[in-house]
Amino acid sequence: MENYRIYLTEEEIPTHFYNLRADMKTKPAPLLNPGTHQPMTKEELTPVFCEELVDQELDNDTRFFEIPEEVREYYRMFRPSPLVRAFNLEKNLGTPAKIYFKFEGNNTSGSHKLNSAAAQAYYAKKQGLKGVTTETGAGQWGTAMSMACSHFGLECDVYMVKVSYEQKPFRREVMRTYGARVTSSPSETTSVGRMLLEKYPGTTGSLGCAISEAVEAAVSREGYRYVLGSVLNQVLLHQSVIGLESKAAFEKIGEKPDIIIGCTGGGSNLGGLIAPFMGEKLRGEADYRFIGVEPTSCPSFTRGVFAYDFCDTGKVCPLAKMYTIGSGYIPAPNHAGGLRFHGMSPILSQLYDDGEMEVVAYRQNEVFKAAEIFANAEGILPAPESSHAIRAAIDEALRCKEAGEEKVILFGLSGTGYFDLKAFEQYNNGTMQDYVPSDEELQAAIATIPAV
Ligand SMILES: *Cc1c(COP(=O)(O)O)cnc(C)c1O
Question: Residues near 378 by Cβ (< 8 Å), separated by ≥ 6?
């Protein structure tokens, strides 16, 4: 009998993070100083970010970074995460394809975000800092950071996007239980928040706004630094544990994925999942198809441009070269949750521009249909974000059925959806709206991208 879950032992938790940049022919473009348009130096970045994380951010050459023992110890509470064969889903679809998923929802944050949160909190503590500030959209990152800060003994200040703060009060209480202070963003507590409230009255907020507030709060307080849950190179580095474990588990059963799929908000779960596989592809050792999946409501890859842009609405952060629909874009308050960021990881952006990966976009209702199919088949209630990957995996499996192909499909189940039941309620009531921005709306946002 073939196993349903392929487990690694605790000893097989990776000992090193893998830095995909070391194997990229075209390196991701450097972050630029928004004033001078020169590459950000270590000296400019360390007032905002922890020192060791800045080193990781700027390092395009070191292939492996040792995972600190304290972080590996913490990982043992929820890692290795299982690689699961979706037998029931396969049967349900009648596909000859084999479908596997790497399940990252098995911790209280309900997502992969704790992988990077643990590393970031550890480095902050090691530097002797007092606390960190951050933003959270759907709430998973804020929860993960609260948990990690509680473990490593740091204060944690979370700016939570207003729409989530109101839609997901339970997330807020989880964060507070772990000792974090949670503020609805935009808020009156920062000058950038007050400016944004004046400029966009009645706004439901965005990740871009919350980032601006969190950065301002970090640099204006002694002993604080800012931490970010996605987009940055350092976050993709930490998330490589997802891919490293997946690869080790596949090796255990003598199997190899043909197609690797993940949802893309800022790109960290997909970037982490594909990292070691993409490394093999870039070194010419193996070939895979990589598919990123985004919501039509925030189509950074499929309708954006590859350009230097601000990471935040308040324009206080460095410029990153990425696929973007403009930092002025404030997405409709829909349920793509953690996929509502206007930009994308510079690493994934470069890989996409080089033709190393594909991207597809889906509407809300077809994504929730996939969530429903998956929940009924496999018993796990998926996060709306992860359900984008499920949708693409199902569609690939159905294509295999038509073509009679026995492909091996791996997708990232980045998290669970227990805090997204308002969205499931709308879907179940048939009132969920598919949102696709008009060309005019996107052009207006893209026009906010600075000329660099
Ligand atoms: C945050 C989040 C995402 C999107 O972020 P990435 O950086 O693109 O991974 C996806 N799924 C879940 C469950 C999340 O919490």
Answer: 84, 86, 88, 89, 101
